[in-house]
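I can't quite decide. Please look over this sequence plus structure tokens:

:::
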Amino acid sequence: MRLVAERLSARRGEDLIFRDISFEIGPGEALVVKGPNGSGKSTLLRVVAGLLPREAGKVALAGEGAQAFETVASACHYLGHRNAMKRELTVEENLHFWKAFAGDSHGGAGVAIDAAAEAVGLGGIVHLPFGYLSAGQQRRMAMAKLLVAWRPIWILDEPTAALDAAAETMFAGLVNAHLSQGGLALAATHQPLGLGAAQELHMAGFAGVSVEAWA
């Protein structure tokens, strides 16, 4: 299955943020979006995830397996700047919600909550309220929601914010494992993600964008 974007444009209010952006991501591939603040990286990811409307262009799934999904959004996990967890609920309660809400997409199965917590290096504290955790621990637990329900496409907006070097390495391992299973990743970041070979899309507002391979 492939994720295909064709000549995307988007507005925020009256302002046209970007225009004519096209890319394609196939199984086991990652696309890293880079650019200065305000160039539209987050807006692009939210448009692809179906969280914001597009001004023009289209986003679609293509190839084998695409017909199993009614929308692009139904194939995606989105991890944004905020962790999307309730501070008053325990980690386990939060992850139970995401496991039930997202559900497993066709082609895979999520892992158990305890196993997801272990995978992000925080096993044994799922009983604690999410609000008790440090900023770095909260970010790790937000990553665990990617694991408890299977979705083939991971859309990641500055995913390693608030993480130390060891946690960054851990997250790179999670994403690389997802790619090795045929998953796709679309990430916006100012920091290296350790994903090995990937495409880069450089956004510079109306100065233009480019997509190129790098290793």
